[in-house]
Design brief:
This protein is α/β, with parallel strands linked by helices. The protein has nine helices and 15 strands. The chain has helices spanning 50-57, 120-124, 128-140, 157-168, 180-188, 205-212, 230-236, 280-296, 312-320, and strands at 8-14, 23-30, 38-47, 71-79, 91-95, 103-107, 111-113, 148-151, 172-177, 193-196, 218-223, 237-245, 267-269, 303-308, 327-331. The strands form three sheets. Strands 3, 4, 5, 6, 7, 14 and 15 form a seven-stranded mixed sheet that branches. The protein has a six-stranded parallel sheet with strand order 10-9-8-11-12-13, sandwiched between helices. A two-stranded antiparallel ribbon has the order 1-2. Strand 1 (8-14) and strand 2 (23-30) form a beta hairpin. Helix 3 (128-140) crosses helix 4. It starts with 7 loop residues before the first strand and ends with a strand. The structure holds NADPH dihydro-nicotinamide-adenine-dinucleotide phosphate (NDP).
């Protein structure tokens, strides 16, 4: 296979931190050269994740100028020196950075071939987010059959997948989401209880969670909303329960005084996906798991919308404005 690679490409560059307006669409950005251990991928489709907004605002530090975008799917266009295991023309998915572009140079270590029968779009709707929820449900807190689980933002990119995975694990799921449409979606995935935490009744979601669990509270809370929900999550968890804080959609959880955990002997975790997929073995374990769930149809994906690359500022506005359901994707 030989693929002709142009010298320039379309890309979105962030030169300094700020609002969605700092996402600059360029039409003649240099195409990167794959280094040792890397592949050059022509992205067919890229994923947009909430984490991208943290790097844009500076909540998470990263060197600028930067091309955001933590994942992509497409075709190998060139193989770097000393890179093994891949050929030009392979259909792959990768985790790295620089995804808001036509081409990305990525480490082969965090790249996998996409099996036949799964589309690039299906993978991008479930790659970073799906690997995250699998790792958090299997390792951060190993969910048991019959556990009561409270999951916030259950209609989001990660939430849509997590609701389904928790149900396949036999958990009883209480999902929160903002608005009737999102709540209907979560209900359709088999969630046992759905709370619209922006409605009048749902504002007191802690009370509703307590009622649903016979006053006991949930075995585990998965909370990616952060600032607005962390205190309620601590109230809604049972004695000896676990809280997994894994995101900052409303802002970060403030520094937590440890004595707050004592009355109920609560355990807390603050995981990140990359801690669970550091070795090739771990990465392949979770990607194989994800691909088999997709292939068997046990895990459904939902694409909010595929946006053209030049509309990236709108994607960030829609994500931060809580307007998306499922996963927003980007067509470079
Ligand atoms: P989502 O599609 O879930 O978007 C975020 C959602 O959070 C919104 O749709 C909204 O849903 C909810 N939300 C609640 N309060 C706010 C607020 N004030 N502003 C904006 N949104 C709010 O995003 P992702 O699926 O990409 O990510 C979900 C979360 O998981 C993020 O916090 C992300 O950082 C985290 N994450 C962490 C990982 C890790 O390794 N630690 C890996 C992957 C994701 P609603 O309207 O229903 O409230």
């Amino acid at each position: 296979h030989i693929m002709s690679v142009p010298t320039t490409m379309k890309a979105v560059v962030v030169e300094q931190t700020g609002g969605p307006e700092v996402l600059q669409f360029r039409t003649s950005y240099p195409v990167p050269t794959p280094q040792a251990g890397q592949l050059l991928v022509r992205n067919n489709i890229s994923g947009v994740n909430y984490i991208d907004t943290y790097f844009r605002t500076g909540l998470y530090a990263s060197p600028k100028p930067e091309i955001l975008g933590r994942e992509g799917a497409g075709t190998v266009a060139a193989v770097g020196p000393e890179t093994t295991g891949f050929n030009v023309g392979d259909r792959v998915a990768w985790l790295a950075t620089n995804g808001y572009a036509e081409f990305t140079a990525v480490s082969a270590k965090k790249t996998v071939k996409i099996p036949e029968g799964i589309t690039d779009e299906e993978v991008m709707a479930s790659f970073l987010s799906g690997l995250t929820v699998l790792a958090f449900a299997k390792e951060t807190y190993p969910v048991q059959k019959g556990d009561w689980v409270l999951l916030h933002a259950a209609a989001g990119g990660a939430g849509f997948l997590m609701t389904q995975i928790l149900k396949t694990m036999g958990a009883k799921v209480i999902g929160t989401a903002g608005g009737a449409e999102k709540c209907d979606l979560v209900k359709s995935l088999g969630a046992d209880v759905v709370i619209d935490y922006r409605s009048e009744e749902g504002k007191d979601w802690v009370k509703l969670v307590k009622e649903a669990t016979g006053g006991r509270g949930v075995d585990v809370v998965y909370d990616s909303v952060g600032k607005d929900t962390w205190e309620g999550s601590l109230e809604a968890v049972k004695r000896k329960g676990t809280i997994v804080w894994f995101g900052n959609a409303s802002g970060p959880v403030p520094p937590l005084p440890l004595p707050k955990l004592s009355p109920k002997c609560v355990k807390v975790a603050r995981p990140t996906l990359f801690g669970y997929i550091e070795t090739r073995e771990e990465f392949e374990y979770y990607t194989n798991e994800l691909f088999s769930l997709l292939k068997s149809g046990q895990l459904k994906t939902k694409i909010h919308k595929v946006y053209p690359l030049e509309d990236i500022a709108q994607v960030h506005k829609d994500l931060e404005g809580r307007k998306t359901m499922g996963k927003p994707l980007l067509k470079p």
